């Protein structure tokens, strides 16, 4: 649905809501707005970034308690006394404090993976919750009362109907900022996290930085929600900031659509309204009080994960006419300045060199004293039977792994231990044996991830839409590379809808988008039909004629021998032959080891 129409309609409805609704429903809308602000952070953190957090309620508490403490304590230290003058100043302090805590906690927990990460968020979430209830200066479990109301330009927001407009104005700004961020170079880097660290780093994304950025943003959204909550209630105690609320926020995200900005609003609204209705209805049905709504929510989540794992918002979008849906590829059709291109090295220049590379895993020697050179303007094939050590060597050449001994040089510089993203910046790009794409993103957006290193606009520029010129350039480059490899008709298609062969071609387009001088292709012809292999061969030949160096790992011998300039053959981690394709095909050692024996 076109965002501007949705936003204008929503603003119109929200503007008149307090005038026509009873105070009870206005209060519910306030809660929905506050909850949505927290869930927006989870859209970035969990839905887009793939990191589950149960601790967001603790950040809400930080924002709330910071303001409560600063506005109610009389004998503040001199260096903090200035902040007590206005809730707006306490908001500033709360954001700084929350940001510092988020950076500290993020540095400790974001390096965890698998189930350890959510367990880590539970640990620090509970720690902050118990801290709120233990400190006497924060009122213990009794809490803090007597908070002042917020005033803006002389307007005192004493009632729910008055602070309502501030809550929803802040929320709409946060939703706009989040959507702008997701529709940007930085947003694609964040989305790339779900494709795995290996893929993202190879495309030039600093994955830890991206994780920390969205962790920080989600914490700041939660802190603003806490600040608004504190001055809406005029009272704060630890109860709303416990683990149960952290779980509720995740429920809201899952129900609405964990990867959708508008799903955050839908989920928060549905869960809040449903909870109020069930809390009134279920005790009457069962004849006794209790938290029966939790049971219902659990059943709803299970049903939803089975029937609509993406949440309700994507489900609703399927009902929207295609004419109302934005065509993202149209952005790339606008006139844009062409991105600068790397000057390719002189033909014959050695670009990549492995010198006596050995890789041991305990007592297993995966590569033993391997040597090879890849020169500009040539295609070198690395072949060998399964288990020969090709993938291990490939990973060392691309920076994924580090040799036990020996050196890997790229353009004359030793790159042992250098992060993949830095090697990519130097001009090396790669594809993967097992296709690594973001299936739910469009073909155009997937390829644009490859151009990440060719932009420099940051998070703030993206949030404020100051990156539009650069964004048009990056998308235009992605479109050019797709047309170059024959996928120009699939710009708006979901990458997951393509056939396996097309997905492999898409990976090559993404690699080319990084403007490399060396391509590392891991079994690019696997899954391709005969005509697709012919087209791939023509593409690689054209790249070679332009001066591109290509290292090819491939099992299709007909494809390899008719295309490449030189061949290196491996067996049991060692090089057993190298030379021209015709020479290698006749080598007795190759026939014995790779082709099943000489006749």
From TrEMBL:
GO-annotated molecular function: ATP binding; ATP hydrolysis activity; branched-chain amino acid transmembrane transporter activity
Keyword Transmembrane (UniProt): yes
UniProt keyword Transmembrane present: yes
Keyword set, alphabetical order: ATP-binding, Cell membrane, Membrane, Nucleotide-binding, Transmembrane, Transmembrane helix, Transport
Subcellular location: Cell inner membrane
GO cellular component, one term: plasma membrane
Membrane topology of this protein: Multi-pass membrane protein
Residues that span the membrane, as ranges: 6-25, 32-59, 79-104, 116-132, 163-182, 212-230, 250-273, 285-305
Residues annotated as domain ABC transporter: 352-597
InterPro entries referenced in this protein's UniProt entry, alphabetically: AAA+_ATPase, ABC_AA/LPS_Transport, ABC_transp_permease, ABC_transporter-like_ATP-bd, BCA_ABC_TP_C, LivM-like, P-loop_NTPase
Stored PANTHER family: ABC TRANSPORTER ATP-BINDING PROTEIN, CONSERVED COMPONENT OF ABC TRANSPORTER FOR NATURAL AMINO ACIDS-RELATED
Name of the molecule in the record: Branched-chain amino acid ABC transporter ATP-binding protein
Organism from which the protein derives: Metapseudomonas resinovorans NBRC 106553
